Amino acid sequence: MPSSWVPTIGLTLLPHVGGILGGFITRKEVKTWYTTLVKPSWRPPNWLFGPVWTTLYTSMGYGSYLIYKELGGFTEDSVVPLGLYAGQLALNWSWTPIFFGAHKIGWGLVTIAALTGTVVLTTISWYPISKTAACLMLPYIAWLSLATSLNYVIWRDNKDKSDKSE
Questions:
Q1: Contact 64/82 with Cβ under 8 angstroms?
Q2: Can you spell out the DSSP letters for 45-80?
Q3: How far is residue 90's CA from residue 108's CA, in Å, rounded to a whole number?
Q4: What domains sit in the chain, N to C, each tagged with a CATH number?
Q5: What is the pLDDT of residue 1?
Q6: Are 84 and 121 in contact (CB under 8 A)?
Q7: pTM for the whole thing?
Q8: How far apart are CA 57 and CA 50, in angstroms?
Q9: pLDDT tens column, 15-32
Q10: Is 108 exposed, middle or buried (0-12, 13-18, 19+ CB in 10 A)?
């Protein structure tokens, strides 16, 4: 049986894996393709995204640990709440390669809309198990609402700069 801190650290850090990998794509494209896009004046500055995502990934990861702990690990009871969490994490990790990597702004919008819905469902499923875990997801929902709006406006205003196969 692993030490009690292994699931805590592992599940808390897990979301960062995709974030770090996506960061390699984002860093390159933010300096090239992204600079050519028309962006709204209300968008957050580029430097803010790293600290925000670091905080959100840590919060959601720790929240997933709380659910895991409350339900006794990967059990039959954890299939829905941790399955929804895994689904949102996969959608989260896929957005960067779609939007920044493939320049598919419209598909990025579809992905982030699905992501936001899945995060809301995850949060709802977590609430009866751990109110703390559910509350840790609220800043993520707020940020995704902003990010979804930003993705929409960028798509609307830059249809000519998106991959033509959209």
A1: yes
A2: PHHHHHHHHHHHHHHHHHHHHHHHHHTTSS-GGGHH
A3: 13
A4: 5-40+53-160 (1.20.1260.100)
A5: 46
A6: yes
A7: 0.92
A8: 10
A9: 999 999 998 899 889 899
A10: buried
